[in-house]
Design goal:
This protein has one domain: 2-Layer Sandwich (Beta Polymerase, domain 2), CATH 3.30.460.80. Helix content is 22%, strand content 27%.
């Protein structure tokens, strides 16, 4: 499938998706409420068949947090990026996709541990690197640690 057909197919699944084109990947911004349903369609649609989640990260923006999913189809050899904004910074929540792509299970835990984004319906939402008693989320821009961080 060429890039134009891929764009059309993905936009048809979620018409309110915002498209951002860059040199490497087509990037779609999806509303958080539609993210899980959209991800399921991306995997199950025979023309798309996004069967491999190869990267899941979080990004700290000034007013919200974003979850970024890099997907590829091993059958059709095409890739896209999906970005989902959280509603706010205080209680950021996005639906899990680990029931769709098993690789998301630990990646979502990492994002939770370091940025504080919770993934609803995740089977084991707990810290993966830091101790449960750790306060805060070290990859947030507003994180402070008087002992370990040196500011210039």
């Amino acid at each position: 499938m060429d890039i134009d057909k891929l764009k059309e197919k993905v936009i048809a699944l979620v018409p309110e998706a915002e498209l951002e084109e860059n040199k490497q990947f087509l990037t779609f911004y999806i509303p958080a409420a539609k993210a899980h349903e959209f991800a399921l369609r991306l995997r199950n649609d025979e023309d798309l068949a996004f069967d491999y989640l190869f990267c899941l990260t979080g990004v700290d923006m000034p007013k919200f947090l974003t979850v970024v999913y890099h997907l590829t189809s091993t059958r059709h050899d095409h890739s896209i990026v999906i970005k989902v904004k959280t509603e706010n910074r205080e209680t950021p929540v996005v639906d899990t996709v680990c029931d769709i792509w098993r690789t998301a299970e630990f990646l979502e835990r990492e994002v939770y541990d370091l940025l504080g984004i919770r993934f609803s319906n995740h089977p084991d939402m707990r810290r993966i690197f830091l101790d449960e008693s750790w306060v805060g989320y070290p990859l947030r821009k507003d994180y402070t640690d008087e002992v370990n961080i040196i500011e210039l």
